[in-house]
Write a structure and sequence with these properties.
The complex is a heterodimer of chains A (987) and B (144). Chain A is an alpha+beta fold and 987 residues long. Chain A has 41 helices and 18 strands. In chain B, the strands form two sheets. Chain B has a five-stranded antiparallel β-sheet, with helices on both faces. In chain B, strands 6-7 form a two-stranded antiparallel ribbon. In chain B, a hairpin with a 2-residue loop joins strand 4 (55-62) and strand 5 (65-71). The chains are: A alpha+beta (987), B alpha+beta (144). Chain B: Residues 1-141 form the AP complex mu/sigma subunit domain.
Chain lengths: 987, 144
């Protein structure tokens, strides 16, 4: 009973305390106890996977347990672990297959049967695991073909639960490396499902079809009639599932029909969640495959009017970006915009119709930017319309702000401006501060028409105005303040830390005393003071240069919060005076207004700029998503003519003659469509590139040094290259060996190893390890543990007598690593029997115990076919751990400033009971730096690259070792603890 | 993964509810009423799987009692559908012809059974004899 409770509710902190007890229970004689113990461990794994790492071997034992229940329980753990990292458990495939074979073959006790089907849920679980294991892996998949075939055959019984198994089987068959016979059988199964009169089966069939279609779209053709029937099914759930399926097979040819179906469904459904979901999909499809401008705008109009205010804000943003940035073809752009303006113009003409706020916002933006395209309609008319909107009560003040912005843009083009004046009059007295601000802006701009025209040029929405993000105009002021003795500005996080460390100094007083033997607490404060005063002297000197970053380190004890406060006030005061030109004008003229208003307005104008930036940024990232769809597009196009046939069937069936027109048009323009899409993507990519560069430079100015930006990283790398010894700098890029005509490959390898040694004597490095080879090349890799990063070197040795062309080595991006290619990696030619090195520096982005880095090399032999060879390398946390050389005092300070700590007692074996030997082992294996040893206590420090320090304090009592980790990173201590335990057990 | 397990009668009264993912108490009632509404509005020839927000509902009706299970989209709907039946069979076995009243007055036992079968959102045991074994031991203890 207690074990059941454990597996239901359990706090993370108590795991170390009860873990040994539960481990004992794994050996219990009663099967139910063992089963519960496994489940309790599963719970532990769910809440804190890194704390049960050392008992993975016990899970394996549970998997081989003689009792079915215990085995089944362990499957849950495996499913979870395999989901996270399937490659580590490939060796277990055999056992899973055997288990499934036994289950399917009816070898289990009879009481596990459910309606004479042997343990159906167990089968499903196993199938799921196999599916995960066999994904994209031919060798593993081959192991399971037999058993899958068997289970497909066995599950012929006419019962619901067998259908569930079949469904899972089909799922697995399609996710593993394909085998045609099995695929055929699975397809037949799906056919049975879809055609079944039972509605639940139909649903299941559709779901399977949706999944399968991603791999094999031809299957949809076989069932096209059924799909069409399902589309008109009375049950909305079936309908929705069918739409989901259609969404997957959409391409440039069938888009009009599919989107129409989706819109129909959209008009019927009422539930908010469905609307949001569906609207997003339609917008995505419309952007991707739109056959022509008119259709695109109309569809988007429908989306906006139905989706209204609940839809995702990205959709209108994307739409506007598309309009603004346009395509390569300028006339196409103009047409699109013109059409948009016209349609909105007419939409606004219609009386007594309420549009959602978002839609109105989009409309007003488009009209504001592009109504000059209308030509014959003068801007006055547009302004009149917008004014009418403004005065209606049904719209929110946010929308009103959009509209006023549009009016402001239009005003310079207008000739007479009665309405504008009326508008100004009305809204300068508005209660809403935001609107009032906008109105005042308009008013002052209006007074100075020439300036206004310069400020608001026509059709320049894409070009960014230069915003001085670094606030460099403040530099002088700050320097002056500093020279008068004001404290330098500290960024928010530093202030926070200060506060924390101050608090901690107070509350940890007794603890500090226990350290007094090391003598640091006594010396701490004078050191702090001298350090602080030193820096304050410095700060005035460096103030001028460093005001951009406004960050000086080490000022912890002297300048407290009170020093910072007045500074901030003076700064904000300064900002209001020194705003960039346009805002300054406005604010200078508004000086008579109260100060609070002024501050607010400043915030507003700033936030407006911010918003613009955000809009750009968001559009940037969405571009990323659309990139991946290029592949999809290619796939879909190959099938296009089949689908065209299909959609014609659909048309004749539902008698929609209107779409036939569209269809023929789309088939005419299909070829041009494709190019048009490609252009669009190219354009997208290019744009993104530009923006990223812009963003990087911006960020570097801000010195935010977020790990996202690449620029600081590049700097770092160049730095690290500079700092490496000259020996390394000489030939760190590549090692050329003169062609050795007689030398065998063995000899070559030796020479390689020697060159390797020569090059890396300055740093520790691992042994050469072969990662993959074939008849022409062999690839080996080794790690160099440099101080700043982990340098992975792949040596490619050409065994053949001919030279290899366009050899290229690529490393797949991994989620936990940041990989940077050292220059000179893509070498066009590898001469015969020579070796070349490829270097990558790797940094860890978030801690973990083991990760996998995979990549491939491709090359061409004598202008013939190109060959690709895949390989992978395991990296462990230890590769990123470096000693942190600090003094005992620094250790004490750091110790107090870290919040995350982990304590654990570890048993030591007899041989290592002495402290020094343990320390030595830790120092060697984990590359920890021994800071100090006091009696039976030891202090160790290390850092996880790039800069995550972790401190370890430990104490020996008899044969127990009390480990206490502290770090600024929350997960690092857990991982280190695990490594420590491994070292202890190993030695 | 199973997110929640609900037993409701036709009047919309919740008889049993169990959540495998944290949901705030006041949100639970809201969720339950919405779930029940969507289940009750469906006829018997309609599909027993409903998409609701970001998860799926699988329901089965036994006389006046609905059993609704909410799962995320990685779960096999049909397997859960049959699992519900398995659960009812176990109840039937234990109470011998289970009725709504049995569940109302022996809620603790129903909970024990459910806990044996589902843990942390996973189906852990479907063997009828094994599910009931701990419960029968408990009964024996309370008798003696």
């Amino acid at each position: 009973m207690a074990l059941t409770i454990v597996s239901q509710i359990f706090p993370r902190e108590m795991i170390p305390a009860v873990l040994p007890l539960i481990e004992d229970k794994l050996q219990h004689s009663k099967e139910i106890i063992r089963r519960k113990a496994v489940l309790a461990l599963y719970k532990f794994y769910l809440i804190a996977p890194n704390q049960v790492q050392h008992i993975h071997i016990k899970f394996r034992k549970a998997l081989c347990d003689r009792d079915v229940g215990v085995m089944a329980a362990s499957l849950h753990i495996y499913l979870k672990m395999i989901k996270e990292n399937s490659s580590a458990y490939k060796d277990l495939t055999g056992s899973f297959v055997t288990i499934l074979k036994q289950v399917v073959g009816g070898k289990l006790p009879v009481d596990f049967n459910y309606h004479s089907v042997p343990a159906p849920w167990l089968q499903i679980q196993l199938l799921r695991i196999l599916g995960l294991l066999g994904k994209d892996d031919q060798r593993t998949s081959e192991l399971m073909y037999d058993v899958l075939d068997e289970s497909l055959r066995r599950a012929e019984l006419n019962h619901n639960v067998t259908y569930a198994i079949l469904f899972e089987c089909v799922h697995t068959v399609y996710s593993i490396y394909p085998k045609s016979e099995l695929l055929e059988k699975a397809a037949k199964c799906i056919g049975k499902f879809v055609l079944s009169p039972k509605i639940n089966l139909k649903y299941l069939g559709l779901k399977a079809l949706t999944y399968v279609i991603q791999q094999d779209p031809t299957l949809a053709l076989q069932h096209q009639m059924t799909i069409i029937e399902c589309l008109d099914h009375p049950d909305p759930i079936i309908k929705r599932e069918t739409l989901e399926l259609l969404y997957r097979i959409t391409n440039a040819q069938n888009i009009t029909v599919i989107v129409q179906k989706m819109l129909e469904y959209l008009h019927q459904s009422k539930e908010e969640y469905i609307i949001v979901n569906l609207v997003g999909k339609i917008a995505e499809l419309a952007e991707k495959y739109a056959p022509d401008n008119a259709w695109f705008i109309q569809t988007m109009n429908a989306v906006f009017s139905v989706g209204g205010d609940v839809m995702h804000p990205d959709i209108p943003n994307n739409f506007l970006r598309l309009l603004a940035e346009g395509f390569d073809d300028e006339t196409e752009n103009q047409q699109l915009r013109l059409y948009a303006v016209q349609s909105y113009f007419t939409l606004l003409d219609v009386e007594n119709v309420f549009y959602p706020q978002r839609f109105l916002q989009v409309m007003s933006w488009v009209l504001g930017e592009y109504s000059y395209l209308l030509g014959k309609e003068t801007p006055e008319e547009v302004i009149t319309k917008l004014y009418k909107l403004l005065t209606s009560d049904s719209i929110s003040s946010e929308t009103k702000a959009w509209i006023i912005a549009a009016v402001t843009k239009l005003t310079p083009q207008a000739h007479s401006s009665n309405i504008v004046e009326r508008l100004i009059q009305e809204f300068t007295t508005s209660l809403d501060t935001c609107l009032r601000q906008h109105a005042f802006e308009l008013k002052h701009l209006h007074e100075n028409v020439k300036f206004m025209k310069g400020l608001l040029p026509v059709d320049k929405s894409c070009e960014d105005m230069v915003v001085d993000a670094s606030l460099s105009f403040l530099d002088g002021f700050v320097a002056e303040e500093l020279s008068q003795g004001a404290a330098p500005y500290k960024p928010h996080h530093q202030r926070q830390e200060e506060k924390l460390s101050q608090e901690k100094v107070l509350s940890f007083e007794p603890y500090g005393l226990s350290f007094s033997s090391s003598g640091f607490s006594g010396r701490q404060s004078p050191a702090g003071i001298s350090l602080g005063s030193d820096i304050s002297g410095n700060s005035t000197d460096t103030g001028l240069k460093e005001t951009n970053s406004l960050k000086l380190e080490g000022i912890k004890k002297l300048w407290g919060k009170e020093g910072y406060l007045p500074k901030k006030e003076s700064k904000t005061g300064d900002e209001t005076e020194a705003l960039p030109v346009p805002q300054e004008n406005i604010i200078m003229e508004n000086v008579d207004q109260i100060i609070t208003k002024k501050d607010q307005s400043q915030v507003l104008t700033q936030s407006k700029q911010e918003k613009e930036k955000q809009l750009l940024a968001s559009s940037l990232f969405v571009g990323l998503g659309s990139e991946s769809t290029i592949n999809l597009l290619g796939k879909a196009d190959t099938l296009s003519h089949k689908f065209r046939r299909k959609s014609k069937v659909k048309e004749t069936k539902s008698g929609q003659t209107t779409t036939a027109q569209n269809m023929t048009r789309s088939s005419f323009s299909s070829s041009s469509n494709v190019t048009y899409e490609e252009d669009y993507y190219l354009d997208n990519l290019q744009d993104r590139g530009d923006k990223e560069v812009k963003k990087f430079s911006l960020n570097s100015e801000l010195l935010d040094s977020e790990s996202l930006t690449e620029l600081p990283l590049v700097e770092k790398i160049s730095n690290c290259r500079l700092s490496t010894p000259s020996l390394f700098a000489d030939n760190n890029m590549e090692v050329f060996h003169p062609p050795q005509s007689t030398a065998a490959s063995l000899a070559n390898e030796i020479s390689l190893a020697s060159s390797l040694l020569e090059e890396t004597t300055e740093h520790m490095h691992s042994d050469l390890m072969e990662v993959c080879d074939n008849e022409t090349i062999s690839v080996s890799s080794y790690k160099i543990w440099k101080d700043e990063c982990l340098l992975m070197v792949w040596s490619v040795f050409n065994k053949s007598a001919s030279e290899l062309k366009s050899a290229n080595l690529e490393i797949a991006p991994a989620e936990n690593f940041k990989i940077t290619e050292q220059p000179g990696c893509c070498l066009p030619v590898i001469e015969a029997e020579s070796t070349k090195n490829f270097q990558y520096s790797v940094q860890m982005e978030k801690p973990f115990t083991e990760g996998n880095l995979s990549g491939f090399i491709n090359y061409q032999v004598m202008d013939t076919h190109s060959v690709q060879l895949e390989f992978s390398v395991n990296l462990s946390l230890l590769d990123f751990i470096r000693p942190l050389k600090i003094s005992t005092e620094d250790f004490g300070k750091l110790w107090l400033s870290f919040a995350n700590d982990v304590k654990q007692n570890v048993k030591m074996s007899e041989s290592q009971a002495a402290l020094p030997s343990t320390l030595k082992a830790l120092q060697q294996e984990l590359r920890l730096h021994v800071v100090d040893i006091i009696g039976n206590e030891g202090l160790l420090a290390c850092q996880l690259l790039p800069s995550n320090p972790c401190l370890l304090h430990f104490r020996v009592h008899g044969d127990m070792l009390a480990l206490w980790f502290r770090s600024s990173c929350s997960t690092l201590p857990d991982y280190l603890l695990y490594q420590c335990q491994k070292v202890m057990e190993g030695s | 993964m199973i997110k929640f397990f609900l037993m409701v009668n036709k009047q919309g009264q919740t008889r049993l509810s169990k959540y495998y993912e944290h949901v705030e108490i006041n949100k639970r009632t809201l969720l339950e009423t919405e779930v029940i509404k969507s289940c009750l509005s469906r006829s018997s020839e309609q599909c027993s799987f409903i998409e609701y927000k970001d998860f799926k509902l699988i329901y089965r009706q036994y006389a006046a009692l609905f059993i609704v299970v909410g799962v995320n989209d990685t779960e096999n709907e049909m397997a859960i559908y049959e699992f519900i039946h398995n659960f009812v069979e176990v109840l039937d076995d234990y109470f011998s012809r289970v009725s709504e009243l049995d569940i109302m007055f022996n809620l603790d036992k129903v909970h024990i059974i459910l806990d044996e079968m589902v843990l942390n959102g996973c189906i852990v045991e479907t063997n009828r004899a094994r599910i009931l074994a701990p419960l029968l031991i408990l009964d024996k203890m309370s008798d003696s």
